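User: Just a sanity check before I run the rest of the batch. Below are the structure tokens for the first item. I only need the designed sequence back.
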């Protein structure tokens, strides 16, 4: 990068907030899954005004700008593809307001999700979106990817809580979008457009969020099954019975064994499927729902069905689930993580298809995730060899194809980024992709903001 441009950026943010060493830059060349190019510069802005000035420079000198939260994404959304400047928002990490009268909050993009949830809970309020990385991912990244999590079944995903945004366009204009109220229909809903846009349309610098009252009580049910299909059928039965838990998490047999390695619960070796179910509300309603769930699980041949209202006991169960993603590396050194969604009634069919693919391709395929909303994290664990990579590539295509055949989608919360771009045409028509590219061109005429993401080259 031109040394004169670097000096201009240093003048904008202060020299201490610009990193140029190879060692520091290399740390921003990958995310939770994908490795990319080493950026030419890491910049830590502190305001929308600084972001605006940097983007104006980028348009003048035509260098890429890549917004980045904590780098926990799984599709390469924050990974550079051709150098450029990474904007890291770790300095913009303030909770600016929690308004208990109107049940809203205003935060900067670098606020860690768990930190925000804890502060809201102190005031008796609840921010439900909880991706697996919630203890270290940032709100800005969650908004850019429209993150979900276990609570999505009952409470929805990130977009359902975003009321307004401050966004800096790639050409430098600062927009204030949305409202601070529960309703607002003035003009186009540009707020929703930026949520889930993966940092390709604008840089989010402030977020107004909806909060809800913290549930009075929770109950957690651990249901074990001999066969994975029995667990899958139980999910459909719970929803069909008009019970809406806050969470239904699923693990297949291979995932259970990995979980036991990372966070032992003393589960029997023969368990083929596991459901971790949480219900909430008033204490009375939570217990009524929990007993209904237990009865449904027992009716679908659950070999064990434990119920706890003890937060410490429930937290131990959740620790096992949240440790699972990293525990998978005990199976093989390379993980390809996908997150397909199918209609809940098709969950048993998807599970049977994944079992067949595991046998056919001869590579470990482990599935777990948010079964209550049909969102499955399908993980292919392989050796880093050309043969295994080729098998995984074909398996991924078949997994996406099966999800689409069942009326689902190829991504529920991970986004497209780099890793899924090549498959985009499997789900979206050429006309739809052309329309999306026109939106990108409108907001970013010089293609300087997070180039190479979402759309295949």
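Assistant: Here's the designed sequence for the first item:
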């Amino acid at each position: 990068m031109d040394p004169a441009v670097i000096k201009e950026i240093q003048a904008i943010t202060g020299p201490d907030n610009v990193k140029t060493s190879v060692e520091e830059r290399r740390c921003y060349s990958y995310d939770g899954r994908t490795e990319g190019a080493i950026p030419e510069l890491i910049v830590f802005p502190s305001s929308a005004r600084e972001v605006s000035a940097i983007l104006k420079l980028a348009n003048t000198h035509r260098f890429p700008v890549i917004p980045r939260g904590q780098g926990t994404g799984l599709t390469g959304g924050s990974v550079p593809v051709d150098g450029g400047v990474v904007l890291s928002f770790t300095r913009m990490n303030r909770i600016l307001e929690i308004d208990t009268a109107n049940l809203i909050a205003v935060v900067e993009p670098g606020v860690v999700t768990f930190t925000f949830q804890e502060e809201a809970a102190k005031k008796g309020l609840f921010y439900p979106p909880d991706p697996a990385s919630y203890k270290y991912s940032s709100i800005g990244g969650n908004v850019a990817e429209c993150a979900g999590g276990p609570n999505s079944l009952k409470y929805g995903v990130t977009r359902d809580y975003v009321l307004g945004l401050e966004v800096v366009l790639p050409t430098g204009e600062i927009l204030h979008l949305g409202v601070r109220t529960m309703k607002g229909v003035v003009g186009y809903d540009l707020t929703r457009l930026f949520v889930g846009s993966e940092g390709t349309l604008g840089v989010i610098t402030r977020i107004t969020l909806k909060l809800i009252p913290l549930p009075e009580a929770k109950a957690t049910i651990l249901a074990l099954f001999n066969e994975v299909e029995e667990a899958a059928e139980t999910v459909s039965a719970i929803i069909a019975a008009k019970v809406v838990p806050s969470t239904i998490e699923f693990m297949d047999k291979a995932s259970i064994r990995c979980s036991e390695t990372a966070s032992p619960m003393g589960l029997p070796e023969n368990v083929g499927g596991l459901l971790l179910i949480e219900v909430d509300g008033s204490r009375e309603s939570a217990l009524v729902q929990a007993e209904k769930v237990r009865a449904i699980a027992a009716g679908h041949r659950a070999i064990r069905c434990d119920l706890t209202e003890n937060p410490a006991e429930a937290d131990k169960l959740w620790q096992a689930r949240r440790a699972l993603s990293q525990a998978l590396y005990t199976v093989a050194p390379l993980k390809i993580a996908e997150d397909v969604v199918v209609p809940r009634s098709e969950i048993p069919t998807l599970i049977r298809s994944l079992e067949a693919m595991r046998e056919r391709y001869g590579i470990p395929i482990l599935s777990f995730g948010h079964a209550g909303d049909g969102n499955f994290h399908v993980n292919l664990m392989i050796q880093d060899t050309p043969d295994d990579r080729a098998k995984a590539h074909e398996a991924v295509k078949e997994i996406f194809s099966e999800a689409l055949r069942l009326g689902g989608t190829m991504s529920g919360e991970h986004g497209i980024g780099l890793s899924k771009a090549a498959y985009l045409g499997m789900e979206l028509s050429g006309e739809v992709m052309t329309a999306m590219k026109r939106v990108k061109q409108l907001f970013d005429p010089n293609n300087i903001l997070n180039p190479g993401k979402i759309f295949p080259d």
